[in-house]
Each structure stands twice: as C-alpha cells, then as structure tokens.
C-alpha cells in the first residue's frame, strides 16, 4: 500500500551534516532505500531551522536547505520528483516518488513576506506558522501568553490562500490555531495527535479536531512517543488508538500520516523508520477496510492538494 507522509526532518540532518548519504545513510530514518522499502509514494520534507542558528542567518539556512533538497533528495537519480501542483502528484510514474517541500515555522522569514514569495517560487507548498515558540507570525504552543496571529501572520495566511497552499497549524498556540483556522483556505495539522488520548500540549483537543473535520481539513498522525502515550513505550496499537478516537469524532476522511521521522530520537515499537510503514498498514487492516486504510495512508492527503 502506497504511503503519503506529511512531515519529516531529514533536511535538518542534512543541514547539520551535509556529508550524510541520503541514498542509504544508516542513521537516517528517511532515505531513498528506506522510502522504497516502505512503499513511500509522497514524502513531505520540512525546512526546519534549529533554534541554535542565529536569527539573522535563518533565511540563509533555509535557502541552504532548499539547495540540499534539490541536490540530494529530489533528483532524477533517486527517481524523486518535486510536487508543485496536483498534476505533478497525479502523474507520478510507477517508479517515481514525489517530494513536497514545506516550511516549519516562519522564523526564517524575519517578518518579510518577500521571503515567503521566494520560498514559494523555489517549491515550498506548505507553511507551518510557528515551531513551539513565538515568531513574527504568531505564538507557538509553549508560549505562556497564548497570543494569536500578528498582522504579519495574517499576511502569511493571505498569501497561502492566494496560492492554495497548506497552512500548517501544528505547533500553534490555541489562539493562533483558531485565528489561522478561521482565515486559512486549506488548514492542516501535519503532525499532531489527539489530546484526549495523550495530554501533550502539542496535540489537538476535541474542539480543534471537530473543527478541522468539519472543514475536511487533514490531520497527520505523529509517531513521536511523547505525543502518542502519556508515559512508557509507544506501540503501533497506541497509534491506532488516536486513529480510532479521531474516527469517532468524524475524522475518517481527514486522518493521514505525519511521522516526524528524523525529527525524533525514539519511536513506537516496530516503527523505527519510514521503511517499516507496512507494519502499521498491516495492523490497521485488521480493524479497518482496505479503502479506509488507503485513505489514512495516502488518499486523504492526496485529495487535499490544490497547489498553484
């Protein structure tokens, strides 16, 4: 069964150590070989700039990530094709994989909408407004003041709407979530789980999930154990509890995958990298129909692509 994964951080690892071999790097959770092993068809690659990088050079680092994306990931040698439009995704050949470039947090924009326009022209099709803390666009989930969108944040959402890009609400403060949710044409949460199952602040509460599902907005299941279980080791069965819960809230057509691979150092049992995706698929098929599982694994996010 083919896989669509809306979030990984392998670009961050390549930024920190450009000598890593993306084809078969042993320490990578996402590599060409593992993507093939897991039957991946579309993978989103996040531009995330670590907090340790000085603010004034974050946009330079973002551009370096773009270069790494085109030189090491989206190449003809890897049979990985850049997805900029729905047609690009719909016309992937059987031997090809798709790659969507995304931005995680608007910190690198430094309050300048022209930097977003540049990244859009370079291929970015999804933008997460924040990481965990505040930036020029909004507050993150770990900011105690719980601020919403700024004027700049509203201009970012407006630009995303103009180009049918995804507005990623993962990491947003609750106030920023609601501000952006009401203004965004295509809101999504690429890597967040259900707070009723696991109380981590990065997860979404019932009101947020129901609102997303009411608009057919997609929520990607995150594999990071602290977002899956409140304590102890996470298993594939624990992941499925989040899927079950979201389905009970009306989210069957809105549940997808956003593993967070290469941004996490611990994993659910038997789900250590993208090559093991079929372990999750096989377990889901015990409880859901093939059509439902195809939705979770690929079709739900595929149907949400309207980029221009």
Question: Can you describe what's shown?
Answer:
The protein is built from twelve helices and nine strands. It has helices spanning 10-16, 32-37, 58-73, 86-90, 113-121, 151-162, 174-183, 206-214, 225-228, 236-248, 277-284, 290-302; strands at residues 3-5, 40-47, 80-82, 97-104, 124-128, 166-168, 187-188, 219-221, 255-257. Strand 3 (80-82), helix 4 (86-90) and strand 4 (97-104) form a beta-alpha-beta unit. Helix 1 packs across helix 3. The protein is globular, with a radius of gyration of 18 Å.
C-alpha termini separation:
28 Å
User: Mean pLDDT, rounded to whole units?
Assistant: 98
- Number of extended strands: 9
Task: List the helices and strands in order.
Answer: EHHEHEHEHEHEHEHEHHEHH
Which radius of gyration do the C-alpha atoms yield? 18 Å
Q: Helix proportion of residues, in percent?
A: 25-40%
Shape: globular
The fraction of residues assigned to DSSP E strands is 5-15%
């Amino acid at each position: 069964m083919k896989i669509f994964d809306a979030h990984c951080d392998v670009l961050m690892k390549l930024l920190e150590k450009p000598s890593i071999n993306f084809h078969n790097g042993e320490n990578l959770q996402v590599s060409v070989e593992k993507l093939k092993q897991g039957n991946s068809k579309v993978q989103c690659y996040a531009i995330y700039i670590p907090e340790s990088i000085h603010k004034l050079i974050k946009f330079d680092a973002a551009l370096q990530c773009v270069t790494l994306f085109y030189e090491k990931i989206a190449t003809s040698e890897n049979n990985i094709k850049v997805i900029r439009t729905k047609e690009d995704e719909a016309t992937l050949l059987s031997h090809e994989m798709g790659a969507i470039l995304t931005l995680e947090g608007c910190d690198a924009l430094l309050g300048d909408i022209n930097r977003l326009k540049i990244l859009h022209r370079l291929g970015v099709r999804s933008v997460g407004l924040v990481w965990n803390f505040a930036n020029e666009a909004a507050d993150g989930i770990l900011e105690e003041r719980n601020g919403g969108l700024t004027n700049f944040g509203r201009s970012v959402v407006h630009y995303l709407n103009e180009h049918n890009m995804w507005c990623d609400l993962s990491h947003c403060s609750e106030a920023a979530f609601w501000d952006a949710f009401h203004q965004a044409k295509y809101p999504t949460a690429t890597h967040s789980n259900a707070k009723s199952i696991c109380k981590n602040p990065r997860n979404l509460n019932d009101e947020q999930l129901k609102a997303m599902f009411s608009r057919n907005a997609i929520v990607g299941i995150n594999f990071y154990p602290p977002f899956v279980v409140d304590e102890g080791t996470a298993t594939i069965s624990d992941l499925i509890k989040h899927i079950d819960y979201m389905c009970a809230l009306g989210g069957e057509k809105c549940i997808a995958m956003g593993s967070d691979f290469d941004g996490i150092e611990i994993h659910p049992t038997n789900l250590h990298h993208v090559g093991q995706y079929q372990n999750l698929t096989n377990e889901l098929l015990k409880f859901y129909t093939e059509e439902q599982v195809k939705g979770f694994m690929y079709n739900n996010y595929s149907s949400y692509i309207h980029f221009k």
